Amino acid sequence: MINQEYKDMLGAKSVIRELSEYATARGKEIGYENVFDFSLGNPSVDVPKEFTEEMIRLLQEEDTMTLHGYTPSLGNQKYKEAIAASLNRRFGMNYSAEHIFPTTGAAGAIAHAVRAVTKPGDEMIAFAPFFPEYRPYVGGAGVKLSIVPADTDSFQINFEKFEEMLSGKVSAVLINTPNNPSGVAYSTATLEKLSTILKEKSKEYGHTIFLISDEPYREIVFKGADAPYVSKFYDHTLSCYSFSKSLSLPGERIGYVAVNPACEGSDVIVPMCGQISRGTGHNCPPSIIQQAVAKVCDLTADLSVYETNMNIIYDTLVELGFSVVKPGGTFYIMPKALEDDSIAFCKKARDYDLIFVPTDGFGAPGYFRMAYCIDTDKVVRAMERLKKFVKEVY
């Protein structure tokens, strides 16, 4: 008998993917350059040349088994050492290779982290707005995910609601900063308060409440933003990272879990992740990609275009009367729609070939997300189309 749970999921496809597919089909009709597609967060800047050069060198100079053979179940040692050293240099941490577990992107990292610090029947908390795929990541581990309503004034944490929902059944808290979809980075003050609450409640409930930090946009931070490294604030933190955005490598599916050395179980969590892989069929990201990224993990692609695009869009939205919190990073912005029904708003925008994502599924009804990882010239043209749409419809 087929699994009914996964069959039922077929009726709940990702709205982002559906809109992206629509934009592609529309582009075949009128030319994709005439479709202003803000649906999919697919990096738009070139991979650093150093990565390409290292891939070429590896293919030309290394033996095939080194490049394409199985890695150890806990990952390539040089990759793990390089990641630990980079984090220590940049953030003043004291990781060693034994605290790093290579994964297939941040999604794989979260899936492992959740299973490492919870058991089926436990509860986890995340904060709106949140990435909708958290639900299958957490639900697949047999854990209940509860969502704290958004603080729509700032999109920092709604601490009043958080403390109401934080019970002894909660084993872990999941955060995402800088945030998809809002673009907001959690401030030093926010992380200090979160840490204080987690310490107090862990003591009160008699068990550690772990913090899982989803950080794929960590390197895309804009001028003046307060976006500190999360693990500096709370010992019991598992950082989940991906090079998809920083190096423009989403198709290579390469990331890691970094276990704070001061975390409870820091000596066993990475080996546990190896065992979790046995049950999920993860079995390490590609060997050659681990080796290449080890060489360039301190670098980023040229991410400056994202801030340029953000400022153009933010200024236009404000000029047109939208309510919007200015992003501190990522390549997303999340304005409030010009009517209560953001799905209806996005459908009307689509008539002008503006492809926006309603954020009801992100826990933020009434808002929409724009992924501005596109050419700046197209952003400028899109803003003229947005002005026309707002003038004619609203």
Topology:
Blueprint lengths: L3 H6 L5 H16 L5 E2 L11 H13 L2 H5 L8 H15 L8 E4 L1 H13 L5 E5 L6 H6 L4 E5 L10 H7 L4 E7 L11 H18 L4 E5 L22 E6 L12 E5 L9 H12 L6 H10 L7 H16 L12 E2 L8 H9 L3 E2 L1 E2 L9 E4 L4 H18 L1
Parallel strand pairs: 1-10, 3-4, 3-5, 5-6, 6-7
Antiparallel strand pairs: 2-8, 7-8, 9-12, 11-12
Explain what this protein looks like in three dimensions.
With 394 residues, this protein is an alpha/beta fold. It folds into two domains: 4-47 and 302-393, Aspartate Aminotransferase, domain 1, CATH 3.90.1150.10; 49-296, Aspartate Aminotransferase, domain 2. 42% of the residues lie in helices and 12% in strands. It contains 14 helices and twelve strands. The model has no long low-confidence stretch (mean pLDDT 95).
Which key terms come to mind for this protein?
394 residues, alpha/beta, Aspartate Aminotransferase, domain 1, Aspartate Aminotransferase, domain 2, 2 domains, seven-stranded mixed beta sheet, three-stranded antiparallel beta sheet, 14 helices
